[in-house]
């Protein structure tokens, strides 16, 4: 196993959108043979699974008020909160490294982490529900995987001293409203800091990362680890993939199961995201979400739009209802009419 350095020109990268895209580059583009490991830190962000409905997972008002990023990963699993007191690790495997790695087997990828934490004083470590790492029966890491060709990524979080209160506010309780996305399984979580030996309890996150990596690779210093450093050429391709997909609202906010189209509107009343499907001259499915009004308000407006003919007159009639303009604001009517009816003849 070797280390993959994700710094850029010697600078630590904490942009969650960037960091969450690197595994896709490594698996789909670079394809380094063997078994690599990368470990990084994100600024505050909510990371949702590829098959999740973001409106059922996050509080958009909290995200906007606290500058929390929303990022969709290409693997499954539930929504998690990251901040600068949390580590993310990812095993990147291409081909057969002949070290026991096997896609779908979370245990083999968890063991290096668990062995290192044991050496750092943590007791009562375990794995539950196949992919959750636990200490004293409480979850401190959730793992996910994705595969592409002969390569795959397997990773998870390591909660060192995560702001749990912020996580609880950014992530909302399970919704009773039906949706086609995979729902998160909210379980009790805990930080590792209190379980570590005293020498590791008061480290900054980069020092904790360094100590953990040294234990994983059984060395005294990071420069003793075989390391692949992302090059200028690597970063050029990563940037291209970000522009094409991973940094777009259409991917992070709009790629929700059950909808064909997505648009985003910046309104005087807030940011409004719009998922919809047009079929046979009607709006078959609509989902409005964002920082306009409340989730309940937007859900009710969405329900009123379902079944409406995809003509400007029909959509405008719904949106001009006083109860709706009181929530969206009069300035929302024409932009939303355009979004829901443009090129409708192709639907």
Overview features:
single chain; alpha+beta; Enolase-like, domain 1; 8-stranded mixed β-sheet; 3-stranded mixed β-sheet; BPL_LPL_catalytic; nucleotide-binding; LipoylTrfase_LipoateP_Ligase; EC 6.3.1.20
Write a structural description.
With 347 residues, this protein is α+β, with helices and mostly antiparallel strands. It is 31% helix and 25% strand. Strand 8 (132-135) and strand 9 (138-148) form a beta hairpin. Helix 3 (106-119) crosses helix 5 and helix 9 (312-319) packs antiparallel against helix 11. It starts with a strand and ends in a 6-residue tail after the last helix.
CATH class of the largest domain: Alpha Beta
Uncertain parts: none
CATH architecture of the largest domain: 2-Layer Sandwich
Q: What shape does the CA trace take?
A: elongated
Q: Estimate the mean pLDDT confidence.
A: 94
- The oligomeric state is single chain
How far the N terminus sits from the C terminus, by CA atoms, comes to 50 Å
**What structural class do you assign from the helix and strand content?**
alpha+beta
Indicate the percent of residues in helices. Answer: 25-40%
Instruction: Please tally the β strands and state the result.
Output: 14
Strand order of the largest sheet: 7-8-9-10-6-2-1-11
Order of helices and strands: EHEEHEEEHEEEEHHEHHEEEHHHH
The largest pleated sheet is described as: 8 strands, mixed
> What's the number of helices?
11
């Amino acid at each position: 196993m070797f280390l993959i350095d994700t710094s850029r020109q010697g600078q630590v990268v904490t942009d969650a959108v960037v960091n969450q895209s690197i595994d896709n580059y490594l698996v789909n583009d670079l394809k380094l043979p063997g078994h690599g490991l990368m470990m990084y830190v994100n600024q505050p962000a909510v990371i949702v699974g590829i098959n999740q409905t973001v409106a059922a997972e996050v509080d958009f008002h909290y995200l906007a008020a606290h500058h929390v990023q929303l990022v969709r990963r290409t693997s499954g699993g539930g929504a998690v909160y990251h901040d600068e007191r949390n580590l993310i690790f990812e095993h990147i495997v291409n081909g057969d490294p002949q070290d026991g790695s096997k896609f779908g087997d979370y245990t083999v990828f968890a063991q290096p982490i668990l062995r290192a934490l044991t050496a750092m004083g943590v007791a009562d470590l375990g794995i539950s529900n196949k992919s959750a790492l636990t200490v004293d029966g409480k979850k401190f890491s959730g793992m996910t995987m994705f595969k592409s060709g002969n390569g795959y990524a397997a990773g998870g979080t390591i909660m060192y001293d995560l702001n749990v209160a912020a996580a609880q506010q950014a992530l909302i309780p399970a919704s009773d409203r039906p949706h086609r996305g995979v729902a998160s399984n909210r379980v009790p979580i805990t930080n590792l800091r209190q379980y570590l030996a005293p020498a590791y309890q008061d480290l900054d996150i980069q020092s904790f990362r360094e100590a953990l990596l040294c234990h994983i690779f059984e060395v005294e210093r990071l420069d003793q680890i075989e390391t692949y450093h992302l090059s200028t050429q690597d970063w050029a391709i990563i940037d291209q993939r970000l522009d094409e997909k991973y940094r777009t609202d259409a991917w992070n906010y709009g790629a929700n199961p059950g909808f064909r189209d997505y648009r985003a509107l910046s309104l005087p009343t807030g940011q409004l995201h719009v998922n919809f499907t047009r079929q046979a001259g009607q709006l078959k499915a609509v989902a409005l979400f964002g920082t306009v009004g409340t989730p309940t308000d937007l859900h009710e407006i969405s329900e009123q739009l379902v079944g409406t003919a995809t003509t400007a007159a029909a959509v405008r009639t719904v949106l001009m209802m006083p109860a709706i303009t009181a929530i969206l604001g009069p300035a929302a009517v024409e932009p939303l009419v355009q979004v829901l009816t443009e090129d409708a003849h192709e639907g």
